[in-house]
Design a protein that fits this description.
The complex is a heterodimer. Chain A contains 4 helices and 18 strands. By secondary structure, chain A is mainly beta. Chain A has one domain (about 5-365): Porin, CATH 2.40.160. Chain B is built from 7 helices and 7 strands. In chain B, a hairpin with a 2-residue loop joins strand 2 (about 55) and strand 3 (about 60). Chain B is globular. The chains are: A mainly beta, B alpha/beta.
Amino acid sequence: MTNSFLRGSITALLVLCCANSAVADHEHGSNEFEVFVAAEAIHGSGQTHPTGDDDTWFDADVVFGLTQHQFRVFGEYYITPEERDLERLQFGFEFAPETVLWLGRFHQPGSAWNTEHHHGRYLQTAITRPFIERWEDEDGLIPQHITGALFESRQPIGNDSAIQISGGVGSGPGLTKSQLLPIDLIDNNPGRHRLSVTGRIAYLPEYVGTSSAGLLFGHDHISSSSPFALTALGSSDVTLSVYGAYVDWTTGPWRVIGANYYVDVSLDQAMHRESFISGYLQFERQLPRKLTVFGRLENSARMQESRYVALFQDRDGDIDTAIRRNAVGLRWDYVRRQALTVELSHIVTLAQQSDEVRIQWSAVVP
Amino acid sequence: MRKTGTIWLLVLFLAAAMPGAWADETLVLIVSADSKVAQLDSLEVRRLFLGMTVTHNGERLRPLLNESDPRLKDVFLQNVVSMTDTTYDRRVLALALQGGRSLPAVYTDKALLLKEIALDPTAVSFAWAKDVQHDKGTKVLRVLWHD
């Protein structure tokens, strides 16, 4: 499939979704079109370019979907002043209710945070995402965008609860000088993209509820043709094995989101093996007047000793990878589908410390 | 005097027995008169209006949100979906973001909603009983809530 054909197909899908969603009285039963937008200001101490290495000052996440009988098409197109990227494009067939096989580019199911929030910042209470959950182009350490097949199923257990199973297999990112580079559906794809296998199994106390807890898994073969990476790692091939557990639980006004990942790194040619642990715990509490207060603790072990982690630190004075972060914030849903959020955080990286304050406006249109 | 009072009591009793008298505060689940759907339980209704797939005889059912009266939607969300309007909105947006699920179609015009339901045997919606009791194109599956 050529990239020009893909561009044409995506444009046609977007036009179709936009057109149908604009019909009088919202008669768009089988189509979906939403745009998640956000604008952010940041001030950080001890950083060279605090605005340059994390969230951009503005972004728009365009989500579109079509459902026809058992067939589904779904896409997510992310736009920032520096980037235009087709983050997800999935073609699915629903074998049975809530059991779908997708083909395309998807977010790997072994991430606790990204499978819930994706790129839509309005639906995420905090402004920032945990460092271990960062995307590849934000110096993320774990592959997140896979191109291949994704199986998803939610099956009832007993009267009210459910079990959710997701498994993905496909081509993962390659490794450039200091960044993972997933397959791009629109532009060129230099480098090798090798096998990625990811999955999750989760228990949901309510079939239609928001709470869940489960186990996460990822196994990624990563290749690099970068001389820099070869020198730093002593190997052009890396095998990442990720084992995790998570909980995302809501009870009354309280919500807790926690995840912990054990990451095993095997540098094939160097006969070297290392591992590190990274996790986070976020608490949220809804208050009167549509306010939500939140706090998050992120911590890690052995990241400082990892050659693989050090590769992502490009020593330009910006924050690429944090080993610890404490954050607190307040969100105000001041009007339907719009929110203002302020977040304060203290970050410890491999080489520096920093304090940050961020203010964000986020919304969904229409 | 006693006879007059008895007559009034009888009139009040008959009025109360007529559907129009209680239907003001009764929320009902409705489908097309041509629909083969005989019944949907509470969990199926919740799944359907949260954008999840609910099928009947292999046909995918299509939820239509009745927003012709603000109170109607509030009563439905609070008592059937068990969510506030804000929580419901965020939940369906999250499901749309996670897998492109279609949000339920929204109708603010009652006549248009009833016409759409009459034409589509897979459509499912809710309404005040008084608004559908004489409508030939729809049938009531069951009472969802009454005051």
